[in-house]
Amino acid sequence: MAPKHILSAATVILNETGKFVLIQGPKRGWEIPGGQVEEGESLTAAAVREAEEECGLRIEVVQFCGIYQNVERSICNALFIGKVTGGELKRTEEALDVGFFTLEEAERLVTWTNFLERIKACLDEKNQPFLHEW
């Protein structure tokens, strides 16, 4: 049986130069690492797990940014800022390509406007925490 509500966590993983990780998924194109929270798992643990599964990096969540909620579809996405603590950036089954990019590069690569909107919201500290509902 499909879950009644979907909860996910995603992270803008920053490096020391201010660039962040994008993965190129097979279905949705370029986006930040993230995915569904598993039963009994915390939001931050899910963000850490998804980063390692999707791009090979071990991360530490350093900041909560906000929530995007699609009320009609019962989907809630928690967004964080993270920093790399280990691992190696690599392609995986979930990422056809990976890399660190600037916001300007992301604006050219990310084709889903709601994904780009979330990245920009996470990088805009003066408007956090945020709650976007629709």
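the 2nd protein, sequnce then structure:
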Amino acid sequence: MSVIPATGREWHLVARPDGWPKPEAFALREAPVAEPGPGQVLVRNLYMSVDPYMRGRMNDVKSYVPPFQLDQPMEGGAVGEVLANADGIAAGDHVLHFGGWREYAVVDAKSAVKVDPELAPLPAYLGVLGMPGLTAYAGLLEVASFKEGDAVFVSGAAGAVGSEVGQIAKLKGASRVIGSAGTDEKVQLLLDEYGFDAAFNYKKGPVAEQLKEAAPDGIDVYFDNVGGEHLEAAIGRLKVHGRVTVCGMISQYNAPEPPAAPRNLALVIGKRLRIQGMLVQDHQALQPQFFEEVGGWIREGKLRYRETVVKGVENAADAFLGMLRGDNIGKMIVSFED
């Protein structure tokens, strides 16, 4: 049984960023470890997730999720060991929950999901079998209405979501899968390890030109993680009745002004395109099917994934900033263990 300390470290947002966040916007502080109340569990976090959507929560604007409060602990996905039990969750169990950015978290037992470290390594429940994985699965199959024979383009394809989208499309019978990434190393990863049919480095030329070369016959589905120039290029290559899942627009999260693109939205009319945004929480009913199907592919070696692990709670803010810059390959995770 792990000893419960009197205090633990937690990350606070201390200033709202204007454009790209700077390290001084964050502070690592010591705080008392709270006692869990009725229906709550105390968790010692082992791993936490940093994700692009967290940048939006740093702005004091109305959105689908409330903004982070200044001088309060931030939140995010985490996996940890239960220290104090409640409501069917025993001490020693491992749970997935939303009390990240701190060493110790008190969370409602009903919101904590038990995970089995014997079925998959614990960090996988933050990535390939976690929120990014379900986002990829639901965004492609449910939101984009993927069907066998579709040609699929994925932006940000070497990330946790994009790499899984491309592989699921191949496993489900896509005719062609194209991905974009920001380095030559990531492009090779898409081709050699994830099985994409074509991939390009978007920093090496106009996206529209590179996508036209990679998809000369057009695309049926675009899974958008980037927005801006990528979305404009995809609209140009989409076939009649093409579908777009808008999962993220990381290219503009830190932009001080809204982007001018896409400038070709009029094509949506003639091509009868469907462009739909998604939030993963709308698709929780798919989770059992997702666990069964994707878990099976992982066990069979049919679906591969990468993780970039940064060690130490003290490095969590640096890991977040690195993720925004694209320093990671696959899911960016912070390990609290030595």
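The domain at 131-281 is CATH 3.40.50.720 (Rossmann fold). The mean pLDDT is 93.
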